[in-house]
TrEMBL record:
Amino acid composition bias (Low complexity), ranges on this chain: 156-174
Compositional bias segments (type: Basic and acidic residues): 258-269
UniProt name for this protein: Uncharacterized protein
Residue numbers spanned by region Disordered: 155-302
Biased composition (Pro residues): 175-185
Organism in which the protein naturally occurs: Phanerochaete sordida
Segments of skewed composition (Polar residues): 202-214
Length: 302
């Protein structure tokens, strides 16, 4: 079976590598066409290029007459792995013009591949360099015209090409899906409430109302105020009654019976609500014990 280099040597097509030998730096390019596998070598910072190739006849000579179709592909895969790993060596190196050098793939392999290189004329070297720049510029269009694309550009380009294109349907065109409502501030910041806010949330409505700073508190001496108001109202009624009958004072029994009865009922209710004063309680505050004072004793001056 005839060897088709373009398909059988696909593993070494459009490869590029840099190798270092001492203080020298070489650039190596690999191309596979239908008729030959071609290698180009350039010396860095110089206009000098060398070229060498393998034809189907060279491949048959290397593999032998009893080769199998799988042997050609296996050889190409092995050469591609050597190339990408940088297992390359420029042999018989000489900077003389027209010197014959060679490129060895797998110099430490059991059976290395050695290809002879011939230096190109300056015009041919320039033409080849221009064709390589044209290829680089064409491929750079996929990465926003970057000669050296960043890893992000490679990832975004591959993900964008692999993603399936959205298919427009009648339902999606007429009624787009509603946007999700943003979370309410209370729910968004619920985990970050302070201890005071948590305590306030656990209180009952009555307790929370009492704890508000603006809520008026019921005075402690409300019942005392009611008794005082009733006493003042009783004194006013006495004065009115005395003025009506021309006397300075009069017994309570001479007042209007309905008024007297109302005053007595309210007074009794107020007195019942007053806290009872226990033994030893304070006169000013019956709910608290009275303070005890110890008499100060002075030593006799004698």
């Amino acid at each position: 079976m005839a060897i088709d280099i373009s398909s059988d040597f696909f593993a070494v097509d459009e490869l590029i590598q840099v190798i270092y030998q001492g203080s020298l730096k070489f650039l190596v390019l690999s191309r596979a066409t239908r008729t030959a596998w071609t290698l180009h070598v350039a010396l860095d910072k110089t206009p000098r290029w060398w070229a060498g190739q393998w034809t189907p006849h060279d491949v048959e000579a290397f593999l032998g007459s009893r080769r199998e179709p799988e042997d050609v592909e296996a050889l190409a895969d092995s050469l591609g792995e050597m190339f990408t790993k940088g297992e390359l060596h420029v042999g018989d190196w000489s900077d003389d013009a027209g010197a014959q050098i060679n490129l060895t793939l797998g110099p430490t392999a059991p059976r290395p591949v050695r290809i002879s290189l011939t230096e190109l004329a300056p015009a041919d070297a320039a033409a080849f360099a221009t064709s390589m720049f044209s290829l680089i510029a064409t491929n750079a269009k996929e990465y926003k015209c970057r000669m050296c694309p960043a890893p992000y550009d490679l990832t975004s380009t591959s993900s964008a090409s692999d993603a399936p294109a959205p298919v427009a349907t009648s339902s999606s065109a007429v009624a787009p899906p509603p946007a999700a409502a943003p979370p309410s501030p209370a729910k968004a910041y619920m985990p970050y409430r302070t201890a005071a806010e948590k305590r306030k949330a656990s209180q009952s409505p009555v307790e929370s109302t009492k704890s508000l700073p603006g809520t008026p508190q019921k005075p402690k001496k409300t019942e005392d105020m009611k008794v005082a108001q009733l006493e003042r109202a009783l004194a006013d009624e006495k004065r009115k009654h005395s003025a009506h009958h021309g006397r300075t004072s009069g017994p309570v029994s001479e007042l209007d019976p309905s008024i007297e009865r109302l005053i007595q009922e309210e007074t009794a209710k107020a007195v019942k609500k007053l806290p009872r004063r226990g033994p030893g309680a304070s006169l000013a505050n019956p709910s608290q014990k009275a303070r005890k004072y110890q008499a100060v004793e002075f030593e006799d001056s004698d």
